[in-house]
non-specific serine/threonine protein kinase (Streptomyces triticagri), 500 residues
Amino acid sequence: MTDTPNEGAPLPAVLPAGYRIGEWELDEPIGYGSWGCVYAAEHITERTRAAVKVLRTDLMSPGQREAMAGLLDREVRFSLQADHPHLVRTREVLSIRDTAHPSLEGTTALVMDRADRSLRDLLDATEGGPVADARAILLGISEGLADIHARRWVHGDLKPSNVLLTDTGGVWLADFGLTAELDGTHAYGPPIGTFDYVPPEWWTDQAGVRSVLRPTADIWAFGILAHQVLTGGVHPFPGADERARSLNVRSYASGSTALRLDPAIHEEWARLVAECLRPDHASRRRLTAPDLARRVRRLSGVGRGRRGRALAGSATLVLATMLIALPSGDAPSNEADSSPAPAPGSPADAFPAGSDVPRKLRPVIVRAAAGCTEKEVTPALLAAMLKEESGFDANASRPKDDEYGIAMWTPWVFNSWAADGNRDGVKDYMSPPDAIVAMASYLCWLDQRFKQSGLHKDLTGMLAAGYRSSDKTIINERGVPERLRPYVTAVQRHLAQYTK
Ligand SMILES: Nc1ncnc2c1ncn2[C@@H]1O[C@H](COP(=O)(O)OP(=O)(O)OP(=O)(O)O)[C@@H](O)[C@H]1O
């Protein structure tokens, strides 16, 4: 908190060197963004370096300030939870207290680890050919993206100035001002974007004053960025300026022109870039961020198992724990329901007599539930969810919402929870056993998240609602949102029928 030694004289737009925010003393600005200025800074006693992003709403018009409020909230929320070697670390978020300058009171300052340059600086300094450490940079970006998507957020503004680099080889994604949390299959953001990195559908996917944001937008941006990294800055779509290039992007997406990548790019990298630059969301979504990271890792020649540090609290860890806990047994089959009546005490006997839960599915449902130690994740709950999601139809689909199969998984979301329920070596969201085990893993994780957040009432309702939205939605609303109430009521009705 800042009361002294900041002087009482009027402050210029750029805060003067020596200005103190909390325990941090500002030095020169490192760079300017649309909403704020980033300063080099040092801790006043420990002399550690940092970068401090000051978002000065006092310099904005009332309209800008209003637009800024929501974005700022998202940037702060995501920054505080980002915990990955390839996401810039936010040390603290401060609210300026400066009695000598009341207009600054309450201004937000994000104190981050300081990088030595951005990828933009590196591209500007490179004349042709791949930038130095191109592979490591692309690997870092793809792993950072995979983590963001696994947490069900979309970066939304991936571009060279938002990729930070350190002299020691650090690669950090930064600037979470447009980072948005998914609610279902997509998020919404303000219609702001950097033309050179937005996907073709961005121009048409506007919902009122908001634009639709999907994880595939980050994949597109990665494709553009990878092309630039591999060529020393060449944008894959020709044009003298951003507007001309964006017209060429749209002409490509409409099928009028073909994609022409720089021939100097190695064939295998070019194939990956082309996949990222598929012309529409539907064809691009097959390449999820975890797949992308795997492919980049392989192309970079980095062996399996190389991770900077463990992902504390990540979904991956919970899933691994759960699958180890799965009792062994015969691999469940995908076939239709045709088995004889169950023996008493068998998995197939877990449901009330006359229940419509298909007999063939009962063992996998029971086994999937047994893999979770949370008492709410029962065979009855899984069956109730499957009933409401698909009516137990293995081929169900809602293409409009990008949801498929018995558990109505969205393909890229399934990837974060993917399970090989029938142990056939393939993790497939259209395979009922895989989809059901993944559903149990996800519900198990949601259950733990809610309990950790102090939410203990109506857990089954929150689990059903969380499956339809996200952990964050339920935690933020402290329970089932009204709009999801009809869905939750239906699941709970089935649950009562399936509970013995
Ligand atoms: N932690 C950091 N360490 C070093 N430089 C940083 C850090 N964070 C941001 N920068 C640099 O500061 C500049 C401004 O960053 P900021 O995130 O405010 O905006 P931007 O991404 O350049 O633009 P916009 O806000 O319009 O998207 C950028 O050049 C960025 O590379």
